[in-house]
UniProtKB/TrEMBL annotation:
GO MF term set: electron transfer activity; heme binding; metal ion binding
Name the UniProt record assigns to this protein: Cytochrome c-550 PedF
Superkingdom, taxonomy of origin: Bacteria
Entry-linked Pfam families: Cytochrome_CBB3 (PF13442)
Gene3D superfamilies: Cytochrome c-like domain
InterPro entries named in the record: c550_proteobact, Cyt_c-like_dom, Cyt_c-like_dom_sf, Cytochrome_c550/c551-like
Cytochrome c domain: residues covered: 58-140
Signal peptide extent: 1-26
Length: 142
């Protein structure tokens, strides 16, 4: 039988390696979930500058589900951030916040080679992204 301290040491080293590996890929290891935007007006390939679905009940409903499936892991359930990522409820409302939202969802955020938020362009449709934005505005706080 191997020495118990040696086994414990190996187990702790393996656990530590898994934690480090998980931390390094925490934002990039999640498979995005598809979003059914079939009820929404199609927007085309060129991104719009402002949210065309603002106040649209169908978009808000779709956006809430899409957020839960694709964003809540980092931005918190119902957009209540636990400190891992920004609290999206504080994004400026309406056209003022749309460029900020669009930039981040399309291009993500990478600093010093570390991905803080992955790019969702080509992963989520423009319709899905604006639906998420529509829902986020319904939970806005100052």
């Amino acid at each position: 039988m191997k020495h118990p301290l040696r086994l414990l040491s190996l187990a702790l080293a393996a656990a530590g390696a898994l934690v480090v590996m998980g931390a390094a890929s925490a934002h990039g290891d999640v498979v995005p979930q598809p979003v059914d935007t079939g009820n929404l007006k199609k927007l085309g390939a060129t991104w719009l500058d402002s949210n065309p679905y603002r106040g649209n009940a169908d978009a808000i409903h779709i956006g809430k589900a899409a957020f839960a499936q694709n964003c809540a892991r980092c931005h918190g359930i119902d957009a209540v951030s636990g400190g891992i990522a920004p609290d999206l409820r504080k994004l400026p409302l309406q056209d003022e916040g749309d460029p900020i939202f669009q930039e981040r969802i399309r291009h993500g955020s990478v600093r010093n080679g570390v991905t803080y938020m992955p790019s969702f362009e080509g992963v989520l449709s423009q319709e899905a992204a604006w639906a998420i934005r529509s829902w986020i505005e319904t939970v806005h706080i100052d």
